[in-house]
Amino acid sequence: MPRLTIEDLQRIKEKYKAEFTLREGGYRAKVTVHMGTCGIAAGARAVMTALMDEIARTKVEDVIITTSGCAGLCAREPMATVEIIGHPPVKYCDLNGDKIVEIFKEHIMGGNPVEKYALVLGSETTY
Amino acid sequence: MERYRANVMLCAGTGCVASGAMKVKTALQEELKKRGLQEEIKIVLTGCNGYCAQGPVMSVHPDEVFYQALTVEEIPRLVEEHFLKGRPYQKLMFKEPEKKVAIPLMRDIPFFKYQVLRVLRNRGLIDPESLDEYIARDGYQAAAKALTQMTPQEIIEVVKDSGLRGRGGAGFPTGLKWQFCSNVLSDVKYMLCNGDEGDPGAFMDRSVMEADPHAVIEGMIIGAKAIGAHQGYIYVRAEYPLAVKRLQIAIDRCYEAGLLGKNIMDSGFDFDLEIYQGAGAFVCGEETALMRSIEGKRGMPRPRPPFPAHKGLWEKPSVLNNVETLAQVPLIILNGAEWYRSLGTENSPGTKVFALTGAVNNIGLIEVPMGIPLRTIIYDIGGGMKKGRKFKAVQMGGPSGGCIPESLLDLPVTYEDIVKSGAIMGSGGMVVMDDNNCMVSTAKFFLEFTADESCGKCVPCRVGTRILLDILTDICEGRGREGDIEALEDLSQDIISASLCGLGMTAPNPVLTTIRYFRDEYEAHIKDKWCIAGVCRDLCTFFIDEKFCKGCMACQRACPSKAVVGEKKKPHRIIQELCVHCRTCYETCKFKSIKILPAKAREAQPSELIELVGTAQKKQ
User: Do residues B83 and B40 both lie within one domain?
Assistant: First the structure.
């Protein structure tokens, strides 16, 4: 390890920001991928992987992903709920990897819910 | 770097490792791999989480779900439920003792809810073996500020203003200590850390060293700059192998990163740091004895003055601070004295870490603001008494402290208030005792410890503690005489005023406080030969009160010496010749039919017995 300078302290702190957002809370947006048996069978894993890859690629640090059970509408799986703190949550259905990436760009980063994939606006929040 | 969607913070403190945390870690790794989740879920080993009684424990972020009492067998189910399906696994969650309702979130669990974490700010949040993770939580920012933007006097002023007092027990103002040493002119000075935690049942410093070793090192760098020292030692007992290991890793990383050694962070300041392992003598926690020990000599105290600020290690000016004190320093430098004073009281600002143990439901490591009533600690954080028993006393300060009775439960925890009660704050051991504890035996237990650990240099301590112990032993074994209590009190005062160091000066505290608050128990031991708690075997008779006995056979099955006789659904009887006074029947009986009577009840006539049972009824 090279000798650290005072600037390096800040740099290391920045590098770990995403990881500590996860541990300390203080995130801006939370995506819940519904992973009940129905969701997994319909391809929720691919949705999850695509989303995680996109977050890693874009180096976004204030968005966290979590899983939950069946949302109750098994026919429309894979589903995901996007919650941006201070805004009503949005449930998306019939997802795949490309759609979730589009939602990530438009809704999570851009702030505009993607209506064409949305099932409903304003379900219960989980934060 | 890779991104994970969840972090599992698995406690790898000494307590949890002992209860199997490493096996749980392997099982978790294997199961995550099996489910293809190893890229998504990261396992981080942390220092002590504090809730040691329920170990191994872990918390999952970002969900903040807390799991306890983990077993290898439960891991596959936990991984499937929580990480695959996203359903927190109720079976391993915390449940309130009476209600049996699972509480998923860590912040809602009473044990954690009332705590305020400053010293333990990084517990359960970082990997103690990672320098980067410490830096990610503002680590070494305070050292950078102190080394580049502050003069030694400015550092001392901030610490003085904060009102920080030594957490080793005596509560001496830290800023003042630094000032004394800073004022002395010398080209060689030493910055020392006291990690020789020796009180039975106390593990605050060990946990800090294990969970956040860099916080201690950073505090030492700041202190070194303040007093003008360029060499430091951390004195840790060899019985703390994990603390030694993690401190050594932390020191090595610091040298690699230029946070120790020459020209730290290009500030022009040099500081070298080493660990010195002590052999575990209690007296080596005393500052002058500790310094002799580092010099390689026998650890024995010497008279003060000269104080270590003038002549300490190798006769050079030295400052010795406790682990917990040093871990507070970076926060004070970073956030200022006023922020530090926002918690606690005027004369005891900030927070204090305690090792809560004994007869409470939740035992473990806690950090609370100073001034909090003892009652809150015991009934809210501690979750009340185990098995609904009656609170009797709380022992604070270990062998140097004393027992605080129920009448003082609303006492705020500050240096001054605790001293007024006759106990001391001490380094933070807090042992809660219920009505099954005999206070004379408790005093005897601590005197056994101090008499054993007395270094022998001065007569009052070496001979005095031995005589105290002899008198206490006589009382507990039925040889107590009229005048013993007064003799104990007199001798205690002599030992306090004539001993050379803190060990002797505080050793009589357990005796004095138990006499002060539980004099009737001493009198019952001496006059009636009666240990009402049934602990002193020679001073009690176990007797079944037929009025209450349902003949359930429970005590009969439990008795190891087959002393209980009687048929089912008919009152039982104890054959006194066979009874070994082990209390098992007393603990087992659900109907309170077993009474603890004085020794003479063994030969008592029936009429006398009835009278004794009546008296016992009132007392128990």
Answer: yes
Does residue B72 sit in the same domain as residue B137? no
Domain boundary residue among B508, B528, B548? Answer: B528
Answer yes or no: are the C-beta atoms of B243 and B215 closer than 8 Å: no
Q: Find tokens 């209860």 and name the residue.
A: B19
CA distances (Å), origin B100, targets B93, B96, B382: 10, 6, 17
Cα angle B294-B298-B302, degrees, rounded to a multiple of 5: 85
Q: Same domain, yes or no, for B91 and B58? A: yes
What is the signed CA dihedral for B449, B453, B456, B461, rounded to 10 degrees? -40
If asked whether residues B173 and B301 sit together in one domain, one would say yes
The CATH number that applies at residue B309 is 3.40.50.11540
Q: Does B439 fall in a domain?
A: no
Helix (H) or strand (E) holding B434: strand B429-434
A29, closest residue in chain B (CA to CA): B62
Tell me the C-alpha distance between A16 and A23, whole Å: 11
CB-based contact B40 A52, cutoff 8 Å: yes
Of the candidates B386, B387, B393, the residue with the CA atom closest to the CA atom of residue B407: B393
Assembly ipTM: 0.80
What pTM was estimated for this model as a whole?
A: 0.90
Q: Which domain holds residue B500?
A: 451-528
In a domain, B446, yes or no: no
Specify if B441 maps to a domain: no
Residue B322: enclosing H or E segment and its boundaries? strand B318-322
Distances (CA, A) of A117 to A72, B94, B221: 17, 39, 57
Same domain, yes or no: B325 and B376: no
Distance from CA of B580 to the nearest CA of A (A): 54
Same domain? For B502 and B416 the reply is no
Local structure of residue B475 (DSSP, 8 states): H
Given this model, what pLDDT does residue B108 score? 84
pLDDT tens-place string over residues B219-267: 999 999 999 999 999 999 999 999 999 999 999 999 999 999 999 999 9
Contact yes or no for A22 and B83 at CB 8 A: no
Comparing CA positions, the residue from A42, A47, A41, A40 lying closest to residue A81 is A47
Across B93-130, b (16+ Cβ under 10 Å) vs e yields: bbeeeeeeeebbbbeebbbbeebbbbbbbbbbbbbbbb
Task: Give the closest-approach CA distance of B18 to chain A in angstroms.
Answer: 25
Contacts A–B by Cβ distance under 8 A: 98
Instruction: Report how far Cα B446 is from the mean position of its chain's Cα atoms.
Output: 15
What is the nearest CA distance from A101 to chain B, expressed in angstroms?
A: 16
* Total domains, chain B: 5
- In eight-state DSSP terms, residue B367 is E
B326: number of CA atoms within 13 Å, CB side? Answer: 32
B581 sits in the region (left: phi over 0; alpha: psi -120 to 50; else beta) called left
Q: Decide: B239 and B118 in contact? Cβ < 8 Å.
A: no
Q: Are residues B335 and B425 in the same domain?
A: no
Query: Tell me, what CATH number does B376's domain have?
Result: 3.10.20.600
Cβ separation of B62 and A55 shorter than 8 Å? no
CATH classification of the domain holding B551: 3.30.70.20
Residue B404 lies in a domain: yes
Identity of residue A16: Y
CA distances from A110 to A2, A84, A104, B100 (A): 39, 11, 8, 45
- Residue A122's pLDDT band (cuts 50, 70, 90): low
pLDDT tens, position by position, B107-119: 888 888 889 999 9
Give residue A124's pLDDT band: very low, low, confident or very high (50, 70, 90).
low
Residues B191 and B293 in one domain: yes
